[in-house]
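Cross-posting from the modeling subforum.

Setting up a comparison between two proteins and wanted a second pair of eyes on the formatting. Protein 1 (sequence, then structure tokens):
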Amino acid sequence: MADSSIFTGPSGFQPLRLLPEWAVFETAARNSPIHDHSLRIINAAGLHVDVSGQGYSDALAEATDALLRARDFGLMRDRLLQGGMANVTEERAAWHTALREPDPIDEVAAERQRLTEFVRQADSERRWRNVVHIGIGGSDWGVRLAVDAFGYAGAWRTVHFVANIDGHAIQGGLAGLDAHDTLIVLASKSFTTAETLENGQRALEWLKAAGVENPYDQIVAITARPEVAYKWGIPRNHVFTFWDWVGGRFSLWSSVSLTTALSVDTDVVAGMQAGASAMDAHFAEAPVHLNAPVQLAMSGIVNRSVLGYGSLNIAPYDFRLSSLVPYIQQMEMESLGKSTDLAGGAVEIPTGPAVWGMPGTDAQHTFFQWLHQGSDGAPVDFIVCQQADHGWPEHHKRLLANCLAQREALLKGKSYEAALQQCLDEGMDNDKAHWLAHHKVHAGGRPSTLIVLPRLSPYALGALLALYEHKVFVQGLVWGINPFDQWGVEYGKVLAKGILDELSGAPVDARHDASTAHWVEQFRG
């Protein structure tokens, strides 16, 4: 790994609001409206990232360069990609990029080979027609996304996902399966995740109740703490590892992808890793003005911290990418949901937006009204594949047309004069036309990005996910926050453990607020 010292800048860390470069950037951003005649498309690892729907000016481009220099972007990018201490509050690297290098370090190569051999043997023996993947958060969403994307038309193995601690989740995940032909995969970085271990215990009991002779032989663990999995009873040859320097929400690139490989083949996993690696190379080498993750990040900072948009909408125009929204939602909101800077002070500038959405065209019939005419609105990332993998070209033409039309409507809007003329052309009487035209006005000028994949290949999906990963890194760097920790999540876990003890009979903590204390007493019964 590279230099592991904590970076505080040449003369100490400076909060963003105090940087003179930020003041210049903010002014340039406010004076750089969206122009529908400016075409700006970046080609990155096979993706076309069209940022024409974001504000731009020469002054903003210069201010962007200056702000990134003030944050030592080049140094910090190298530190991330070379395994230096990027996660400063936990004093470790965030080296997920090492998991997808074409010529990885020995320990990564060895674990990658173990996974491949495990899947090949299982396939050759036609073992485990059912896989129950038990994990939550980063140990769930990435695998779910890959299986949805490439197994949507069916595979010879059926995969069930169980994440939630709600007993209905594990009950439904096991329902109707043949226990003798089912593999249980437990994915947890620490192997202490309460939801995963509790659901895993129920799965173990289910195997035993079905008369499985050696139930632990049908359980696999994926963790950064293999010794804990061994103590749980899982055989050593069924424990796959990743490392402390891999954040949970980036663990898709590790052995967590075992379920993906069992469902849709090891070639899919390899293809996603290759696409992500290509985006890593683009991020490392492309100049700032042609660097897709950087431009996506800086547009997002303009929209959130300068223009005040509180959320970001993700609109994948591909049915197979239904799980992309929660995947990006977790990546961005868990990474950028911070209000304390690296010096321990308040950022005092709006940071990570709420991330939400659903696939188009369903989204158009759900919330696009709000995007077009709501008082707040939100920037939109449109994601679409140029080519479809089905045999109905008319469907794909309609999908593409809807995607482009919705984006153009956000960009151009509709003036009162245009709306009035439309009403008059429809034969409406003058008074009604003047009244109704107000209701048909679209403000326009609402920011969006269009990301075009040639088709939904593993390579393209891997590149897309890495694009968002590096975008998050750049935004964390500029805002001066650590995107790789998650102390807010940890605090809730601690409180939940105490309340669980109380629900099980321990004395109720008098420090609870009145409402919590009331419901602890009610639920104890």
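Protein 2 (same layout):
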Amino acid sequence: MNIPVKTIIRTIFFTIITLIAITTTSCAQTNEDKLDALISTYADYGEFNGTALVVEEGKVIYKKGFGLANMEWDIPNQPDTKFRIGSITKQFSAMLIMQLVAEKKLDLHTTISTYLPNYPKENGDKITIHNLLTHSSGIPNSYESTKQKAFRPDNYKLTELVQEFSALPLEFTPGEKFSYCNAGYNLLGLIVETITKKTYEEVLQNKIFTPLKMTNTGFDKHRALQKNRASGYFKSWGDYYNANYVDMSTASAAGALYSTVEDLYRWDQSLYSEKLLTKKYMDLVFTKHIADPNYGGEYGYGWSIKNKLLGNSNSKVETVTHDGTIDGFCAIFTRIPSSKSTVILLSNIRRAPLNAMTKGIMGILYGKTYDFPKKSAAYSLLDGINKKGTTKGIEHYKSIKNNDTYYLSEDEINIVSYKFLQSDRPKIAAEVLKIGIESYPRAFNLYDSYGEVLLSLGDTIKAIKNYKKSIELNPKNEHGIKILKELEINSNELEKVDLNLIKTDSTWGQEIFIFPIHFAPEIKYEGFEDIRFAKGWAKVDSDGFWTYAFAWSVKANSALSEKEIESNLQLYFDGLMTGVNKDKDKILPKTLAQLDKKEDTNNKIIYTGKISIFDAFTTQKKMTLNVHVENYYLERKKKAVVLFRFSPKYFEHDIWNKLNEVKLRDTILKK
């Protein structure tokens, strides 16, 4: 077959063009593009709020802020935003010590008593500078600081901080093992001050920050006005809150510095030079002095040395790194000396997946595959319900729960349910837990939570079933055992008692009280004629005015009818008001009750309505109460149990949301 030359040439031409296009497309996404896509996804999913800087072969290839430096004023994070860096401070403290060692003013292996004559000799004669630098001093790190509880902003001196732990017994022989110790680094700060006769802050400025032109780094102070300083936050259940106050003078040489990604880059680059310290001593800083079992690496002087994974591959590279965490902030600083690459991530949220982010970024730098974060299906459910309503929110959840870009967490499902429960939406909380149990049918905690929600809805029988299931899955579930014990004991006792609704006069004060009275903790069971009423029930301007609950166990072959309940309520209140009427000659108006059927399930019928009574207790006037009736039939005992809730405002009053356990009157059990 003869093919024309022109056709061959045309084919070759278009093949070349296609190859060029493919090559151009594949090369179009640079490392900078990949970094932006990865970090932006973390930010979009609410996982990262801060600033990132990435260095490759000594040059900055990526630098960008994400989210807000101040959430109340919508001020964005920028590369020059100042963040607290927590324990990254320790590498600066270690540098000051090594500079003094290089100047022959300190000896690494001399005990600290030599430099601090007032330090208790029992400990000071055992601990060396090297022990302090490598967290191997044995100084306890878990003592309770009185300084952190007091309030003297920016005013604590290192001598005061050291006095708190100096006389405490050592936890182990110095040098015996690694045990991370903030106290030890504050002690190093005091040694710097003692040798130089200057404050730790002054020495840092003179010996590190000024020479490196780190103009945006310093010792953080509460009272000082600091341009571009980020506010700190913590995230709980998907919501952001202002961080707790921290007096940074109590963190001092162990964690009091603030900085920016740009200044930390200057610091990073200086460590490849001898600008601050000669090679002989710089090598000591990055020597693997002691194993760090907590992080699976070794510890130098103020730095961890460990092999880290590149992306989701099995390849590793040796890094020199440290992280830092303090209320409202977290940070990670990772250096890869072999390629002069660095990853700096600073966040003004207390917790962020900075290690996972660093792992992905390192994968990009080394051309390895890496993982993108996934979005929370549980929080998407929360957001969907709040914005679109329960039905559409659940529909959206079902459409995404198996999507590869989402993940589902049992704990987060539980958290979302509690958010709805705490915002007075228990029915939605129940729906969320049903969804969770479908996905995690062996998650005991979800059954436990479902039981709690069902109690808040008044469905005691179903609550018992779910608590039983939670204990079946986890026999050590102490909370479930406690609640179930109370529920089952009282449920059994309820079935032993037979009172007749019709005998209103003789049963006044003898009702079975099966709702708890947590809202009236001052009431005790023993010695009270009646325990139905909440605190403030008789105060007309109180939320608890005439808001109460009680229940009767009734001999019957089925649940009571609507008319039977109305009739019994009228008889009850007529008898009640007659019994407390001070003017015995006065004929009180008759009670009127009107109920409507609301819900019919396998084991209960719910009625809602209103009841008009004459309030002989307080107002001496007619009043209308909202009533909520739950009408159970106990098949095993062949009897009905009728539960009543009353409130002049609404039967779903806030009081009822606090009811989550069953109680019986002791006086009834004696009959």
